[in-house]
Each structure stands twice: as structure tokens, then as C-alpha cells.
Amino acid sequence: MTRIGTERQHPRMTSRGSRRTRARALVVAAAALLVSATACSSAQPAAAENPTLTVAAFNPFSGQDQSFGPEMWAGCEAAATAINAAGGVLTHKVACMSVDTQGNPADGVTAAAKMLATTPHLFGVLGPSSDEADATAPLINAAKVPMFADTGESSFDHNKLQYFWRMVPADDVRGYAMALYAHQKGYLRAAAVFGNDTGSQIGVPTLQRGYSELGGQLVVDQKITLGQTSYQSQVEQLIAAKPQVIFTETSPTANATYLAELQQLGHLVPVIGTDVTIQPSWFSAMADSIGKPALTKYFVAESPYAAASGPGWQVYNKDLLASSSVPKPPQWSTDSYTMGYYDAVVLMALAATATKSTSPAVWNASIPSLTTSGALVVHSYAEGLAALNAGKKIDYVGATGIIAFNQWHNSGGGFEIAAYQSNGSLNLVSSISAAQLVPLIK
């Protein structure tokens, strides 16, 4: 695995929510860093006749959101496996490179500048995440490198960056999805238990608004401090309020401590978590604290919806399991974010094929034409390659299903509600379509 960045270990996750502190000032600093890094790397080795094209997995691989990186790496490697097996992109092989943003804007800017200045055949970028998107997306855009971001920040809902693309719904929409599912289950009294960090709080306002509009009452709203050894006073406050359900996102250890104390007092109730709570590290912490039987009985979580079925998913899963550089690949088989990263890399390769150019500045504008409704539906890179070489227009429907970019380069979708099985895998409980959320979104 090729890496750009440094390694630090802080095993806490937050959502892909907004953290924009100092971001715009960092954009200015980034330009200066890029110029400096470019000058330092002016002497490049002679180009190979048929160079490998590099896709950068630009996300946290260390720091508090270190779980994001491996999730992205799995999707990138699975796509590269498929593309290379089909002959590459215009005979060029594709390779993935991890770029560690460390989960904060300042380190992200430094990593982006180095990546752009020292990667001679940079084909495209997966990311940035919400941790560093405001600071780094303008920099990547200025370099004319297409990026498929996994940021859920609402600031990109009306994106104006030409090289920015997004296939995940905005983070604030997830609050509506959680509220709607609770309403469907008949939960009229709820507690909100979220970390006091910005990432955990990003979806709370829409959760509050949506739940209220649906007739629910939020009987307690707690912003808990992460890292405490006990939350007894908050737990007792929650018990006194008598909620039927708990909405939550905190760190794995905080959730584990909180829910264990609630269980010990005999008041464990159904829990609806955000997408952050369906990560392997969260499952491990929770299974150790409240036990697998309680976890599988009481817990569900929302996540951007991508059905683990159908021809597109079947191709994705085959390529994932064939990716030798992905540790324990089955853990990502039903991960909607990993599916999205896979589809993004396939779209990059198909765009280059369609325009007969590996130059990102050339193929970027052709991306929407590859997901045109009414065209020939293809579910894999190999199918798309054959169709394009035959002069046909295509509609790529991959692992995540239908992709439809709007004028702001966003292709949002619905949500799934998933529950853990005792082995840590996820089971689909319900789904919420984008159309169902429209009445709640203002």
C-alpha cells in the first residue's frame, strides 16, 4: 500500500459531518504549499511508456476518524482489480494510493499539496471527507483533478466546483431518515444522546425538526462529553424521562459505557444510531459492553442505501473478494460507502474510455453522460468498456444502484435501516427512499 501522510492512533470515530474551522483560510495557505511542493519536486524521473494511473484514497487513515480510510481503500482496490482484469484504462493499469489526511483540515491541506505535486499520473481522487473537504476540495479542483467526495456537508449541496462529484446524501438529511423510521415504528417519545463534538452534532437539528413535525416528542437531549468513565447522571436523567427509543452517535467507547450503565439499571430500550455506529470497531465495543444478544435485539442504524443484491452488487462483491490487498474483504461486502468508492473508480475509468483520454481535465465533463437514463444499462467495467468500444451510450448502474447527478454534481439517494447479526454482519431491516424524505426536507 502506497501512503502519503503520517500515522497516529486515536481510536474514536465521528460522522462524516461538517468540521469547517479555519477551512477557508487554509485554502489560501494550501496554494502556497502547492507551489512550494511543486518547486521541490521539479526533477521527476522519465515517464514510462505505459505508466500506471494512480487513484488517491484521500481520507483519514489515522486520527479520530481512522476507520474511514480502510473503508475507502477496500472500494478502490476492488475497482482496480476489475479494471485491470479487463485490460486497464486504454491499456494503462490502475493502482490505488492512500493519502492520510489525519482527519483535520491542516494536515489535509499538507497531504493534498504533496499529493498533487508529487504524483505524476494522478488519475482521480476518492474523497475528501467532511473532516477536510472545505479546505482541500478547492485545491484539488484548482489542479483539475476529479474527486468523488464522501463529505456529507450541506455546504456542497449547491456545489460550484467543476471537478467535485458526490454520490452520498448530505449528513443533515440522515436526521430526517432517523426520525421517519422512529415514526414508522410508533415511537412517540425519544431521547437524543449525541457526543458534544461537531461531527456528532451535525444531524441533530434535522432530527429534532423532523421528529417534531412527525408528532414525536424529544423528551431529553443530551450532549455528552466523550472519554468519561461513567455517564450515570445522564443515564438516570434519561430513565426519568421515559423514552421509548434512543437516537445516538458518540464514540464507540462512550456509547458502550453509556448503554452498559443503562442496561445495568434495567432500562435498555431500542436504539437508532447513525451510519458511524455500523463500523467494525463500534460493533466490537458494544458487543463487549452490553453483549451480542442485547445488541442484536435493541440496535439499528441508518446508512445511505445500497442494496447488497442485484447484478451490480454481485460484480462488486466478486471483485472485492478477489482483492488480495484488502484485509478481511467480506467485512465490506454490504458497506454502502465502500460500494460508492468502487462505483466512483469505475466511472473514472469509463469516462477516460469514452473520451479516449487518460487526462482528468479531458474526461471529467463526460461523467454525467455515463449514467444517462434510457441508454444501454451496464453493471460492470467490462460491460461498459465493450459497449463504449462498440460506439454505444451507456447507463452505468453499479453496486450502489442508479446514479443521477444533478446540476451541482450531486447524486443523493435514500437510506437503509440495518441491524447487527451476532457475527457482526448487517441485516437489512427497512429502507427509506429519497421520495419519502422530500416532505420533511425544507
Task: Write up this protein.
The protein has helices at 23-40, 68-85, 105-118, 133-142, 171-184, 198-201, 204-213, 232-241, 252-264, 280-290, 292-298, 310-321, 336-355, 360-363, 381-389, 434-437; strands at residues 2-4, 53-59, 94-100, 122-126, 147-149, 164-166, 189-195, 217-224, 245-249, 271-273, 299-304, 376-378, 394-396, 415-420, 426-432. It has 442 residues and is of the alpha/beta class. The strands form three sheets. It has a seven-stranded mixed sheet, with helices on both faces. Helix 9 links the parallel strand 9 and strand 10. Helix 2 (68-85) packs parallel to helix 13 (336-355) and helix 3 (105-118) packs parallel to helix 4. The protein is elongated and about 70 Å long.
Calculate the terminal CA-CA distance, rounded to whole Å.
Answer: 43 Å
Q: Percentage of helical residues?
A: 40-55%
Mean pLDDT: 88
Instruction: Specify Rg, calculated over alpha carbons.
Output: 22 Å
Biggest beta sheet summary: 7 strands, mixed
Total number of helices? 16
Q: What's the assembly state of these chains?
A: single chain
Number of strands: 15
Give the helix/strand class: alpha/beta
Sheet with the most strands: spatial strand order: 8-7-9-10-11-14-15
